[in-house]
Amino acid sequence: MTEPLRVVVADDQALVRTGFRMILASEGIEVVAEADNGVEAVDAVRRTLPDVVLMDIRMPEMDGLEATRRILSGTAMGADGLRVIILTTFDLDRYVYAALSAGASGFLLKDVSPEHLTAAVRMVRTGDALLAPAITRRLVERFARRDSATATVHRDLAALTPRELEVMRLLARGLSNSELADRLRLSEATVKTHVSRILAKLRLRDRAQVVVVAYETGLVSVGGTEPASPPPTDRQQM
């Protein structure tokens, strides 16, 4: 029997925290701690080591974006497998992009339905992102502010094979697994394997993070074009 999902709820409104706790508990998801500001959220994660954090953006003392950055950069907290979902009443692209850049795996409005809330918690725990790569790409292209003349590929990308770099470029353009398979003349299973290896090598949490890193490292440029011809097949690279 698998252990129940463990969640920390961080929101400065007690009614919101209570409502989320009741919704999650009704679906067998345990709320192990609550926090009403970012400082308490960081401490709660350190103490309880949850699977998922539901994090409000606007909170006193420390906002949710900064708390997310501190939590997900703190491997000493056991954050390697942790996922953060940002909660807000404001449906603004700049918050979504800031949340993704901070390492969050998703973004929900506070008026989310109970069914969507519990589904989102379960989804991110398995490594999926709440935002499709195409949506993430639009956000990155709109809000990323790198000088293309000085953008350089992050050293960690050196761990990727030529095929993995190509998959990462196309994923950053918003292609789905099936579209990647058609483009590269591979099976979807092989594409999923490549994506899994990219996540593992770069220590990323989900596909949305791959898109952010691809742009912010300069692997893909805003408004850039894709390769004119398809790359060699995996068999040709072996």
* Shape estimate: globular
Uncertain ranges:
147-153, 225-238
Bin the strand percentage.
5-15%
In terms of structural class, how would the helical and strand content be classed?
Answer: alpha/beta
Helical amount: 40-55%
The biggest beta sheet reads: 5 strands, parallel
Q: Could you give a quick summary of the protein structure above?
A:
By secondary structure, the chain is of the alpha/beta class. It is 48% helix and 11% strand.
What would you note in describing this structure?
This protein has 238 residues and is an alpha/beta fold. The chain contains eleven helices and five strands; from the N terminus they run E-H-E-H-E-H-E-H-E-H-H-H-H-H-H-H. Strands 2-1-3-4-5 form a five-stranded parallel sheet, with helices on both faces. Strand 3, helix 3 and strand 4 form a beta-alpha-beta unit.
